[in-house]
Specification:
The complex is a heterodimer of chains A (345) and B (617). With 345 residues, chain A is α/β, with parallel strands linked by helices. Chain A has a domain of 238 residues: 3-Layer(aba) Sandwich (Rossmann fold). Chain A is 30% helix and 18% strand. Chain A has an eight-stranded mixed beta sheet with strand order 2-1-3-4-6-5-11-7, with helices on both faces. In chain A, helix 6 links the parallel strand 5 and strand 6. The longest helix of chain A has 16 residues. The relative contact order of chain A is 0.11. Chain B has 617 residues and is of the alpha/beta class. Chain B folds into three domains: 224 residues, 3-Layer(aba) Sandwich (Pyruvate-ferredoxin Oxidoreductase, domain 3); 187 residues, Thiamin diphosphate (ThDP)-binding fold, Pyr/PP domains (Rossmann fold, 3-Layer(aba) Sandwich), CATH 3.40.50.970; 105 residues, Rossmann fold (3-Layer(aba) Sandwich). Helices cover 36% and strands 20% of the residues of chain B. Chain B contains 20 helices and 23 strands. The longest helix of chain B is centred in the middle third of the chain and has 20 residues. Classes of the chains: A alpha/beta (345), B alpha/beta (617). Chains A and B meet through strand 1, strand 2, helix 2, helix 4 and helix 10 of A and helix 1, strand 9, helix 9, helix 11 and helix 12 of B. Strand 12 of chain A pairs antiparallel with strand 9 of chain B, so a sheet runs across the interface. The complex binds thiamine diphosphate and iron/sulfur cluster (SF4). The site of thiamine diphosphate has 17 residues of chain A, from helix 3. The site of iron/sulfur cluster has 11 residues of chain A, from loops. Chain B: Keywords: Oxidoreductase. Chain B: It comes from Ignavibacterium album (strain DSM 19864 / JCM 16511 / NBRC 101810 / Mat9-16). Chain B: It holds the Pfam family POR.
């Protein structure tokens, strides 16, 4: 920054990011909190004039998000937000491009685009609002609904297994994977901030309550009397401790995780697994992601993993520059008249 | 072949040659090299590559035969020729498959080495056609191409397999000799292509020269043939295929509009070459994005268009079907976008490597809701260049998706192209909206186009998307009257394009008995048929559509100036249906859907039939 003569001081407030459109989610919907946390965080993390921010979405309740942000916005078609956002980013790499999507939108119809955005490490921030249900189409089960889920299309219970979103992102080698909860505003703000500062595909799964079609899906993680025993807040460099009285911990026995009691004197803080966000080895991140499927284990929230690698857009523009250097700026006349040409007189 | 004088070097006006062999025999390469050289010596030419969908079908089988036909002439020509005069058959299967189409009395050059029991069996020959009289009446030349190539390459450090593979160069050399073409072009090409493999250079060049010299030395051939250069308009020429011309057209549109080019695409035959060509122009800042599927191809392009690039997406029929919903999104968001559909045989996966014209209705009508888009079609390989520029111009000026239709035949086929100078190409003006004052996302200009206000522009932050928008303001709107108004406005915007495109031209008399009407890649076949019928005294004219939605303004008047209208198409009557419904006129149809270009002779017959024998003469 030292050489940058024109450092423009940008001072925004949350209000600057609110559009003039009336917000039309059901009263009590978790989406309101997510919108508020984004608007609250943006003044801190937006390092460029706000006309350089673009929100892209697919279709679903959550995908109405761009209308409510006073930035450039594109409400796309079902599932395609990551692809549309990719085009925006590659057309103009100076833009800060954000995706708002639902669990159905991103993982069902849009699963292909999601994994490929992660794989290519396109510099997008993807916020997935996970209510474990299809909201906009009024309550059918989604690819994150638990097995046995009774919904309008599964009156006898669904027989499919759900996706584990962090695991899916990890499998596609996303460079930033995090999770948070609509009812945990401070934590959610922190995750948004971290994603905003990351270069590359940043994926945040946000547990979101759909109080109309799947009310209480996350109540164990959000209600006062249960949350401490069911949520594990990941903090880099810190041992994994949870429980109302900070009385439980996670210990790694080889590659096997164990929940241990810290009150019996058998285990202490020093025996616990210390979280390393920057661990390039995906094995431990996968163990963490699998906690959700293991009875007795808490649900981790926080940054699961953050690694640094060249983004697709950086690679693309680097290559363009390299080819220009090698071949010289393109000369259309030369290209048209190249190959086996001959004259007719 | 029409010979003029009987002497050593026979002058021909035109020749059609078909190279045919196993799909591993390199026939496409041989054909392309022969075409390049033929273009370079100044003949007019037209080609038809015809290959199986399997990359390497089992060797020696009939379905594994790959062919390349080219028609060259000292006069203006427009088709690859109905029937070849000369067949080069590298194996029995190639002979079996192609003999029925060879002209009576035509010339056959066979690789006699390949006519062994195994290959004869694979081709389902019960006896050897070289010996059993099957080929009586043809001029047959048996050349042991495999062994002659092997002899010529003795001492070259190549494996027996590599030596065998060089036989196509032997055949090419022989044909160069027979048709009096220079070998230098191909020698140069070999040196460039195999720069990293000196043994390949040596082997292929030796095989080429051996073939040429064999022609000279052998007593097999008593004559050579020559086709004089065609009298083309003055200028600088190159041979160009449709896909290459399409790619160059978009490169030109990018330069002439000053917009960076973005192509989002998923490979599909016969459109893949467009992304392949454009990928080589990185130094023009061209961004080619090989997406995970067609939907991502078009939606990345829509995103790029929103952000201010000249955005295009290329595909073939099945891919266009997948892009349908996204095209509707581009219609609603009123963003410029060009969708190239290189049509192939359908439905479904159909005949992937063959040509067809059956996506017209899909292009014009194939979307949910009232979703009008502009549709244009290229008529010849080189016309792909013009229409790519036109499609880009219309998309930008009217803020609309435009579908550009080409087809497998013109995409793969090539012809000489008089290269335009960059300064002769039209500029494509672009105005991004930048003034804050009075900005609304769905405000319209005199063309009914809304402003292109791209992210990064201060003060113009706005939201668009696929939900219906209120007129002018662009907020989401469910108002019934607003919806009707927006539907009508979008339709009118497309209809207005008719004021901005060339009128439909009539070749021949501008009124009379019969007008033959076509669109897209059948131009050449129809033109040649109409010319032939006229030469026989029939009163017939031609009109060809390159703009299909909207139609040119004078379309109705042109059609109604003739007593009869005949529409030949490689589909079951899609243009005919559009014409009938739009202008309420009766038309005659001629529809043959064989995966191949229409045959000139068939169209001539149809013209005569439509005119009722002598009627119209
Ligand atoms: C091509 C297509 N198929 C189906 C739909 C119907 N549809 C709209 S939203 C949706 C699911 C939304 O669920 P989710 O992404 O979880 O978002 P939520 O509404 O719960 O926020 C479906 C199936 C559509 N709009 N387009
Ligand atoms: S249906 Fe559910 S997800 Fe959609 S707005 Fe209402 S509460 Fe929110």
């Amino acid at each position: 920054m030292a050489n940058n003569v024109e450092v423009k001081e940008i001072k925004y407030t949350a209000k600057d990011f609110a559009s003039d459109q009336e917000v039309r989610w059901c009263p009590g919907c978790g989406d309101y909190s997510i919108l508020a946390q984004v608007q609250r965080t943006f003044p801190e993390i937006i390092d460029r004039p706000k006309e350089n921010i673009v929100w892209v979405s697919g279709i679903g309740c959550s995908s109405r998000f761009p209308y409510y942000m006073n930035t450039y916005g594109f409400h796309g078609i079902h599932g395609r937000a990551p692809a549309i956002a990719t085009g925006v980013k590659l057309a103009n790499p100076n833009l800060s491009v954000w995706v708002a999507s639902g669990d159905g939108d991103l993982l069902s119809i849009g699963g292909n685009h999601f994994i490929h955005a992660c794989r290519k490490n396109i510099d997008l921030k993807i916020l997935m609002f996970n209510n474990r249900i299809y909201g906009l189409t009024k309550g059918q089960y989604s690819p994150t609904s638990e097995k046995g889920k009774i919904t309008k299309t599964t009156p006898y219970g669904s027989v499919d297994y759900p996706f584990n979103p962090p695991m899916l992102a990890l499998g596609a080698e996303a460079s930033f994977i995090a999770r948070s909860i609509d009812r945990h505003p401070k934590h959610l703000q922190e995750m948004i901030r971290r994603a905003g500062l990351h270069k590359g595909t940043a994926f945040i799964e946000i547990f979101q309550n759909c109080n109309i079609f799947n009310d209480g899906a996350f109540s164990l993680l959000t209600e006062k009397d249960t949350k401490d025993d069911h949520v594990l807040e990941l903090v880099h460099g810190q041992p994994m401790i949870f429980g109302k009285n900070k009385d439980k911990g996670i210990k790694l026995d080889g590659m096997t995780p164990m929940v241990v009691d810290l009150t019996t004197g058998k285990y202490s803080k020093d025996d616990l697994w210390v979280h390393d966000e920057f661990d390039p080895n995906p094995a431990r991140t996968a163990i963490l992601a699998m906690f959700d499927e293991t009875p007795g284990f808490p649900t981790p929230i926080g940054v699961f993993r953050q690694i640094t690698k060249e983004t697709y857009d950086e690679g693309l523009f680097r290559q363009i520059e390299e080819v220009k250097k090698k071949k010289g700026e393109g000369d259309l006349e030369k290209i048209l008249f190249s190959g086996n040409v001959w004259e007719v007189n | 072949m029409e010979t003029e004088k009987e002497k050593e070097l026979l002058q021909l006006k035109e020749v059609t040659i078909r190279f045919a062999g196993d799909s591993g025999d390199g026939m496409q390469l041989t054909g392309t090299q022969f075409s390049e050289t033929t273009a370079w010596v100044g003949n007019d030419l037209n080609t038809l590559p015809d290959y199986p969908a399997e990359i390497r079908a089992p060797a020696g089988t009939i379905y594994g035969v790959s062919g390349f036909q080219l028609h060259f002439s000292s006069e203006d020509i427009h088709t690859p020729g109905d029937q070849p005069d000369v067949l080069v058959a590298m194996n029995p299967a190639a002979l079996k498959k192609n003999l029925p189409e060879l002209k009576k009395g035509g010339m056959i050059i066979v690789n006699s080495d390949s006519f062994d029991i195994k290959n004869l069996n694979l081709a389902h020959y019960e006896s050897n056609p070289l010996e059993d009289g099957t080929l009586d009446g043809y001029q047959v030349y048996q050349v042991p191409i495999s062994s002659l190539t092997a002899n010529a390459l003795e001492g070259v450090k190549l494996s027996p397999k590599e030596v065998s593979r060089a036989k196509n160069f032997f055949a090419l050399g022989l044909m160069y000799w027979l048709f009096n073409r220079p070998i230098d072009n191909t020698v140069k090409w070999i040196h460039e292509k195999f720069a990293k493999n000196p043994e390949y250079i040596e082997g292929n060049e030796k095989a080429l020269r051996a073939g040429y010299n064999f022609g000279e030395m052998t007593e097999l051939f008593t004559a050579r043939y020559t086709v004089e250069p065609a009298k083309l308009p003055k200028g600088t020429y190159r041979s160009i295929s449709g896909n290459e011309a399409t790619a160059l057209g978009f490169l030109a549109a990018s330069v002439k509009s000053g917009l960076p080019l973005f192509l989002g695409s998923y490979p599909i035959t016969p459109a893949s070459e467009i992304i392949q060509y454009l990928s080589t122009y990185k130094n023009f800042g061209v961004k080619t994005f090989q997406a995970e599927d067609e939907i991502a191809g078009i939606t990345t392009a829509i995103g790029a268009s929103f952000a201010g690039n000249l955005a295009i997406t290329s595909t073939s029929g099945p891919g266009l079907a997948l892009k349908t919903e996204a095209i509707g999104l581009a219609v609603m968001t009123e963003l410029p976008l060009v969708i190239i559909d290189v049509q192939r045989g359908g439905p479904s996966t159909g005949l992937p490597t063959k040509t067809e014209q059956a996506d017209l209705l899909q292009a014009v009508c194939g979307r949910n809701g009232e979703a009008p888009v502009a549709v244009v079609a290229a008529a010849t390989p080189s016309d792909c260049f013009n229409m790519a520029i036109e499609a880009s111009r219309i998309a930008i000026k009217y803020m609309t998706p435009v579908i550009l239709l080409t087809d497998g035949y013109i995409a793969n086929g090539s012809e000489p192209w008089k290269i335009p100078h960059v300064n002769e190409l039209p500029d494509i003006p672009v105005k991004f909206r930048t003034e804050k004052e009075g900005f609304y996302p769905y405000l319209r200009d005199e063309n009914l186009a809304r402003p292109w206000a791209i992210p990064g522009t201060p003060g113009l932050e706005h939201r668009i998307g696929g939900l219906e928008k209120s007129d002018i303001y662009g907020n989401v709107s469910y108002d019934p009257d607003n919806h009707h108004k927006m539907i009508t406005l979008r339709a009118k915007k497309i209809k207005n394009i008719e004021n901005d495109i060339p009128l439909l031209e009539v070749e021949g008399e501008s009124s009379g008995e019969l007008l033959v009407v076509g669109w897209g890649g059948t131009y050449g076949a129809i033109k040649e048929a109409v010319n032939k019928a006229r030469a026989q005294g029939y009163k017939v004219s031609q009109a060809h559509f390159r703009y299909l939605n909207p139609f040119p303004k004078n379309t109705e008047q042109v059609l109604k100036s003739f007593r009869k209208v005949l529409i030949p198409e490689i589909n079951l009557g899609q243009l005919a249906r559009l014409i009938k419904s739009e202008f309420l006129i009766d038309v005659q149809q001629f529809n043959v859907v064989r995966g191949l270009p229409l045959r000139v002779a068939d169209i001539v017959d149809q013209i005569i039939k439509t005119l009722g024998g002598n009627n119209g003469k």
